[in-house]
Design a protein that fits this description.
Blueprint lengths: L3 E5 L6 H12 L2 E4 L1 H12 L4 H6 L14 H10 L3 H15 L5 E5 L2 H5 L5 E6 L2 H14 L6 H17 L12 E4 L5 H16 L1
Parallel strand pairs: 1-3, 1-4, 2-3, 4-5
Bound molecules: cytidine-5'-diphosphate (2 copies).
């Protein structure tokens, strides 16, 4: 039987970290849908038309190791408002959500557009400065040369673009549980997510 957990929220809120832990805890499959938009963005930077890139996206290209760079983050949020790009990625995400044994999908529009009937929806968020600090630390550990102010500005620009676009804007679904992780450790955030899922799973 399928069971979908939808996790949405702004950049660097902890969606991926929580999704991976929850998937491991319950034995669910996990799809980071941001990677789909990042892969399309990366192909646009390579010179491809974004709609064509989305329509011909090979799931194997999600393994490209440059997908987490700030340049690709920006490119992803520039291709994401294009309705034809979103439409091309829809079936893959819905099929993933429907797989037997349970699935966790994280992104921006999982609870609102991709899986509006998901039994569990979490909207993970944190203050701008906390999120920028987390992302800055992550990039610094990977050896990416950047500053806190650059990371904060990149993140705020992307959040604004994601929230203000007409197609599938970033916003909590009406029935989402909002999880503000500003003051939470990773373990605390994961425990809160596990509890919310257990409550709805019965
Ligand atoms: O997927 P998303 O962009 O929402 O965030 P992430 O990649 O899961 O988390 C961004 C960074 O914040 C990672 O380095 C996490 O280890 C860290 N994090 C944290 O410090 N505290 C949390 N409660 C959640 C994540
Ligand atoms: O890890 P982080 O939260 O910084 O970004 P991501 O989840 O990898 O998403 C990268 C970009 O893809 C976002 O800024 C959105 O523009 C777009 N995206 C989207 O539009 N819809 C999704 N379901 C997931 C990502």
């Amino acid at each position: 039987m399928s069971f979908t957990v939808a996790i949405d929220g702004p950049a660097a809120a902890g969606k991926g970290t929580i999704s991976r832990a929850v998937a491991a805890h319950f034995g669910f499959a996990h799809l980071d849908t941001g990677l789909l938009y990042r892969a399309v963005g990366a192909r646009m930077l390579d010179g491809l038309d974004p709609v064509e890139a989305a329509q011909t996206l090979d799931p194997a290209s999600l393994e490209r190791d440059d997908l987490r760079s700030p340049a690709v983050s920006q490119a992803a949020s520039k291709v994401a408002p294009i309705p034809e790009v979103r439409a091309a990625l829809l079936d893959f995400q819905r099929a993933f959500a429907a797989r037997a044994g349970g699935a966790v999908l994280d992104g921006r529009d999982i609870g609102t557009v991709i899986c509006p009937d998901a039994p569990v929806k979490l909207f993970v968020t944190a203050s701008d400065t906390v999120r920028a600090e987390r992302r800055y630390r992550e990039l610094a550990e990977k050896g990416v040369e950047t500053t806190f102010d650059e990371v904060l500005a990149e993140m705020q620009e992307r959040d604004r673009r994601d929230s203000e676009r007409a197609a599938a804007p970033l916003k909590p679904a009406k029935d989402a549980v909002v999880l503000d992780t500003s003051q939470m450790s990773i373990d605390e955030a994961v425990a809160a997510a596990v509890a919310a899922i257990e409550e709805r799973r019965g």
